[in-house]
């Protein structure tokens, strides 16, 4: 048997269903955004941690030129090291037939039975047999992109010699969750088709690299509680004589670094987004419930007279709020689970885990629902408290007429310029300035959410323009297996169709300022070069100084140096010189930790003759295939990257997730704007239907009374749009700041088109919701309204 | 049922002062009054005479500025808001001029509001039968006439079997014939349930149906008289 008071609750909720639904929609958006992001986050985190754990992802990674086997035992003796595993890691080239240019390959020489650390997850087939130099297990993504199966044969250029390698297995590794570490250009957009890892038998393949009885790569597991930095320094000093490139912890292992960064970003979005929705929901609950309680003043008084306790009446109204929350929670959880699973699918092509299970934890749902219930209850508190405290005897009496004052415009003497409708609108605004301000803020949040959803599309074009049209302007970049002198670039320059050639020499270094250091690459660029330039935001070309370093400001701030300071450059290849170099200038680029020198200054610093690690080409498109064919024949070519492919890859990768995000956030933003406008309109209608009916009786037309009612809302919306756009930009800045600054520093670019879009969508949502209310206004029953007792 | 000599509620030296902006408005000036078990009393007076204030204080909806109110052996002026709520919940039934029904609830549900929380109530159906509204039980207030709404309000007031039924201008919003019908119902309920009933009105002829008539003017009791012969509601003319 349902208590009579509960029946009242249900009927009240049904009567205000329009308002209840719009508020529930905002709550649903809040819960959905939280559940979506949080469940995707915890699913990814769970998948990653389980993967790292079961495959024993290493704690420290180090690469060297060539170290004799016995050095391994010295590393193993470093305090804190639990397990040392040495291996070969080599760069190879894979001239697959279905690609014009060869794919980049990473050959890993493993012990029989597979490595203990970074254990290989064999999806199909098996690992290569010991002693077989012509067998390899290959990375699943590459196999999938080229439809390779165990038993197929793959051409691989190993140390300049082309061999046919039999694919024995399709595998994954925790080292390559994100397939980064391919060739230049791929740091922006890992390309499954152009990057492959081959696991081969170490002993069998070692002679091909002159690595018999030696290793060039080591992975370590540390004992619990060991500080990583101490081990890294010890390993570095052991490997220094053998061409050590500097050990890194798992946090800076390229794949893990990207994965961590993505996860961190997702985690921070999962906090920011729901707060906005729940704040708006709280405000709307306050707005609507205040009105409901005002309208039910005499009902509350009656309930009190009958003998209901204040607590019971307060609970009654809180239940009404919780009913709305429940509605929003059900919809939001469902929507969030659906979007969360969808979001996880968006990550699937980039995060290569063996298992990709969507997990929606009860805890996530509970936190989401609880947070929205709290937000709604917080919003309703003031109104509920008024109901609880309402003196019954007084509430039986009709209320005193509300107090109005002249608006500011009237007081400065502009009153006569305003029509009657405008005067009423202004006085209404003047009477409830806080409500007006909060309503504007609510709508502004709606605008802001739409801006956040839309800005990345406009920003992408700008990024592509700067990075791939201003900075990297070559048609092709060709990386060599080792630095080569200018005869090679000369011979490439003479290929038919090659219009222009520029050399680049990239040298792995550790840049040090006192105790601060970072491993990176110094790129030697041709002076006055036109294919590769340093371009800083917002599109200014920075000249590489004739001597000294040009440092990216992110790297400079990591090191704590300014232009004019001196840093130590420890070269991590060749003769491993250490040189003091002056920082000539700083540049503000969007990606990575960059360092440049002029090619000649770099050569002079290293004391080497002209050498280049890669060349950049401008070509005549008609000769593209011929050039590809020639390059494929050159054994020293490690990788060929076409700018066109990089841009396409970059766009494809960003497009799907961006469009999805944009659609979802635009809908969410509309829900906010529509909910604020609709609820304000309904309340204004309810509060002023008597005034409006009186105006109609006096001879005002429907259009004129609509102007009085909706004029106020128009003011809200128009006032809100400007600040909303700015707020959107601010939110975008906050969200982008959760991105690792060393990775990229995408300026938050909100284009005019994005602003226009957000403003237009908000206006449309506002107009749509006022049309609904306008129709109710048209149906206003003059006699009934005027006869009703307030 | 006629009156007995036992006072159900008793007010002593009751004063009430409202502060309206800058001025004090005195609504009651040292009023002494009592109501006896089972009696039907009418408080008569022009508007502003303090009768609503007196009723609200007797019903525990308001508190006096000074003076004491005793319900049987309880001192209502000593209790807090919670104690007054319990008093209303268990002992008092209100009938208001504008019925004050909950518009979203049917007649039966409006009565159930009370029977849901009262210790030993009538059933809503019985209460509505007492006021002759059995056929209209499932109608909403908006589907009923003013007289019917007021009879629902009476059913709601008596469903808890109150000791005290307080009616504030119960016919004030009704036409003559409907008003008569409502008074008839009040008088029948008073006879059948034996609840002490106090009706306030500015309509003098109604006083003729009371056991006792108390006249208020300017916050004071001007006169008090017993009717030698009570008229039936149908005999009243105004």
Q: Mind sketching the topology for me?
A:
The complex is a heterodimer of chains A (790) and B (238).
Chain A: H1 4-15, H2 17-54, E1 60-68, H3 71-76, E2 81-94, E3 103-110, E4 121-125, E5 135-139, H4 140-145, E6 153-158, E7 161-172, E8 195-201, H5 202-205, E9 214-222, H6 228-239, E10 248-249, H7 254-295, H8 297-306, H9 310-347, H10 362-389, H11 392-395, H12 408-414, H13 420-431, H14 433-471, E11 476-484, H15 486-493, E12 498-513, E13 516-525, E14 534-536, E15 540-542, E16 549-552, H16 553-559, E17 566-571, E18 578-587, E19 595-598, H17 599-606, E20 612-619, H18 624-633, E21 637-642, H19 643-698, H20 702-736, H21 752-778, H22 782-787
Parallel strand pairs in A: 3-8, 5-7, 13-19, 16-18
Antiparallel strand pairs in A: 1-9, 1-10, 2-3, 2-9, 4-7, 5-8, 6-7, 11-20, 11-21, 12-13, 12-17, 12-20, 14-15, 16-19, 17-18
Helix pairs in contact in A: 1-9, 2-7, 2-9, 2-10, 2-19, 7-10, 7-14, 7-19, 9-10, 13-20, 14-19, 14-20, 14-21, 19-20, 19-21, 20-21
Chain B: E1 7-20, E2 23-36, E3 40-44, H1 51-58, E4 66-71, E5 74-75, H2 81-91, E6 92-95, H3 107-115, H4 124-130, H5 146-158, E7 164-168, H6 176-193, E8 196-201, E9 212-217, E10 220-226
Parallel strand pairs in B: 3-8, 3-9, 6-7, 7-8
Antiparallel strand pairs in B: 1-2, 1-4, 4-5, 9-10
Helix pairs in contact in B: 3-4, 3-5, 4-5, 5-6
Quick overview:
With 790 residues, chain A is an alpha+beta fold.
Terminal Cα separation of chain B, in Å?
26 Å
Give the beta-strand count of chain A.
Answer: 21
Q: Which structural class do the helices and strands of chain A define?
A: alpha+beta
- Percent of residues in β-strands of chain A: 15-25%
Shape of chain A: elongated
Specify the biggest β-sheet of chain B. Answer: 6 strands, mixed
Instruction: Tell me the structural class of chain B.
Output: alpha/beta
* Percentage of β-strand residues of chain B: 25-35%
| Count of discrete alpha- or pi-helical segments spanning 4 or more residues of chain B | 6
Mean pLDDT of chain A, as a whole number? 86
Termini Cα gap of chain A: 33 Å
Please bin the fraction of helical residues of chain A: 40-55%
- Output the helix-strand order of chain B: EEEHEEHEHHHEHEEE
Give the overall shape of chain B, derived from the CA principal axes: globular
Q: Compute the average pLDDT of chain B.
A: 90
Give the radius of gyration of chain A: 34 Å
Largest interface: chains, residues each: A-B, 26 and 31 residues
């Amino acid at each position: 048997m349902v208590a009579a008071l509960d029946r009242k609750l249900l009927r009240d909720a049904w009567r205000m269903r329009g308002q209840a639904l719009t508020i529930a929609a905002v709550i649903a958006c809040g819960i959905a955004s939280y559940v979506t992001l949080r469940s995707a986050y915890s699913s990814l985190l769970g998948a990653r941690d389980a993967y790292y754990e079961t495959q024993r992802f290493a704690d420290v990674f180090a690469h060297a030129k060539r170290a004799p086997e016995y050095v391994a035992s010295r590393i193993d003796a470093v305090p804190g090291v639990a397990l040392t595993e040495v291996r070969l890691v080599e760069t190879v080239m894979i001239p697959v037939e279905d690609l014009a240019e060869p794919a980049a390959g990473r050959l890993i020489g493993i012990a029989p039975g597979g490595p203990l650390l970074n254990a290989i997850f064999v999806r199909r087939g098996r690992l290569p047999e010991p002693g077989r130099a012509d067998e390899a297990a290959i990375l699943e993504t590459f196999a999938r992109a080229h439809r390779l199966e165990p038993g197929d044969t793959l051409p691989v250029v190993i140390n300049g010699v082309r061999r046919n390698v039999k694919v024995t297995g399709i595998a994954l590794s925790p080292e390559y969750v994100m397939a980064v570490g391919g060739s230049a250009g791929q740091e922006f957009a890992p390309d499954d088709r152009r990057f492959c890892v081959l696991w081969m038998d170490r002993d069998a393949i070692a002679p091909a690299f002159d690595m018999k009885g030696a290793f060039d790569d080591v992975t370590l597991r540390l004992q619990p509680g060991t500080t990583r930095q101490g081990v890294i320094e010890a390993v570095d000093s052991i490997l220094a004589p053998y061409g050590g490139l500097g050990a890194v912890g798992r946090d800076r292992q390229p794949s893990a670094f990207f994965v961590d960064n993505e996860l961190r970003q997702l985690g921070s979005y999962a906090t920011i987004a729901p707060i906005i929705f729940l704040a708006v929901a709280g405000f709307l609950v306050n707005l609507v419930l205040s009105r409901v309680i005002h309208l039910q003043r005499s009902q509350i008084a009656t309930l009190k007279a009958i003998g209901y306790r204040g607590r019971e009446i307060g609970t009654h109204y809180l239940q009404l709020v919780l009913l709305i929350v429940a509605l929003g929670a059900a919809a939001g959880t469902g929507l969030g689970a659906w979007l969360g699973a969808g979001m996880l699918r968006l990550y699937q092509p980039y995060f290569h885990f063996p298992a990709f299970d969507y997990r929606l934890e009860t805890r996530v749902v509970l936190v989401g629902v609880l947070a929205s219930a709290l937000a709604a209850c917080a919003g309703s508190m003031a109104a509920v408290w008024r109901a609880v405290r309402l003196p019954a005897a007084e509430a039986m009496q009709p209320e005193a007429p509300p107090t109005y004052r002249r608006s500011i415009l009237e007081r400065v003497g502009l009153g006569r310029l305003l029509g009657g409708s405008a005067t009423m609108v202004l006085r209404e605004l003047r009477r409830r300035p806080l409500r007006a301000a909060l309503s504007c803020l609510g709508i502004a949040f709606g605008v802001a959410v739409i801006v956040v959803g839309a800005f990345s599309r406009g920003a992408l074009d700008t990024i592509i323009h700067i990075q791939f049209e201003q900075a990297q302007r070559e048609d092709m970049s060709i990386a060599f297996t080792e630095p080569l002198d200018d005869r090679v670039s000369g011979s490439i320059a003479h290929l038919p169709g090659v219009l222009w050639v520029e050399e680049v020499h990239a040298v792995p270094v550790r840049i040090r300022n006192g105790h601060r250091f970072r491993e990176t690459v110094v790129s030697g660029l041709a002076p006055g070069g036109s294919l590769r330039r340093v371009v800083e935001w917002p599109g200014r070309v920075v000249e590489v100084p004739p001597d000294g370093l040009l440092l990216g400001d992110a790297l400079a701030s990591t090191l704590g140096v300014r232009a004019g300071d001196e840093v130590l450059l420890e070269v991590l290849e060749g003769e491993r010189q250490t040189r003091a170099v002056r920082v000539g200038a700083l540049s503000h680029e969007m990606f990575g930790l960059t360092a440049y020198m002029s090619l000649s200054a770099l050569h002079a610093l290293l004391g080497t003759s002209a050498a280049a690690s890669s060349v950049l080409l401008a070509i005549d498109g008609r000769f593209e295939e011929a050039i590809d064919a020639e390059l494929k024949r050159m054994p020293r070519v490690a990788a060929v990257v076409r700018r066109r492919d990089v841009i396409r890859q970059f766009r494809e990768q960003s497009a799907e997730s961006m469009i999805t995000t944009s659609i979802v956030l635009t809908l969410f933003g509309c829900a906010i704007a529509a909910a604020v406008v609709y609820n304000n309109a309904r309340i204004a209608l309810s509060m002023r239907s008597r005034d409006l009916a009186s105006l109609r009786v006096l001879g005002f037309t429907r259009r004129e009374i609509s102007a009085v009612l909706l004029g106020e809302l128009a003011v809200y919306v128009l006032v809100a749009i400007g600040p909303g756009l700015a707020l959107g930009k601010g939110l975008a800045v906050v969200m982008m700041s959760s991105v690792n600054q060393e990775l990229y520093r995408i300026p938050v670019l909100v284009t005019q088109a994005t602003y226009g879009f957000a403003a237009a969508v908000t206006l449309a949502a506002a107009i749509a919701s006022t049309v609904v209310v306008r129709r109710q206004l048209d149906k206003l029953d003059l006699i009934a309204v005027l006869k009703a007792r307030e | 049922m006629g009156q007995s000599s036992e006072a159900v509620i008793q007010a002593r030296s009751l004063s009430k002062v409202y502060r309206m902006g800058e001025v004090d408005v005195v609504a009651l000036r040292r009023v002494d009054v009592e109501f006896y078990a089972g009696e039907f009393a009418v408080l008569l007076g022009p508007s502003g005479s303090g009768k609503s204030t007196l009723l609200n204080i007797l019903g525990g909806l308001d508190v006096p500025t000074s003076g004491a109110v005793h319900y049987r052996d309880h001192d209502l002026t000593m209790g807090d808001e919670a104690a007054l709520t319990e008093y209303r919940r268990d002992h008092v039934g209100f009938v208001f001029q504008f019925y004050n029904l909950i518009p979203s609830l049917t007649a039966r549900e409006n009565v159930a509001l009370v029977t849901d929380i009262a210790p030993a109530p009538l059933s809503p159906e019985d209460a509505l039968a007492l006021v002759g509204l059995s056929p209209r039980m499932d109608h909403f207030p908006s589907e009923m006439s003013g007289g019917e709404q007021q009879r629902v309000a009476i059913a709601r007031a008596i469903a808890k079997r109150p000791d005290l039924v307080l009616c504030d201008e119960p016919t004030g919003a009704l036409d003559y014939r409907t008003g008569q019908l409502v008074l008839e119902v009040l008088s029948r309920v008073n006879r059948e349930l034996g609840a002490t009933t106090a009706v306030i009105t500015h309509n003098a002829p109604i006083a003729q149906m009371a056991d006792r008539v108390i006249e208020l003017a300017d916050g004071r009791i001007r006169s008090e008289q017993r009717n030698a012969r009570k008229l039936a509601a149908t005999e009243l003319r105004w």
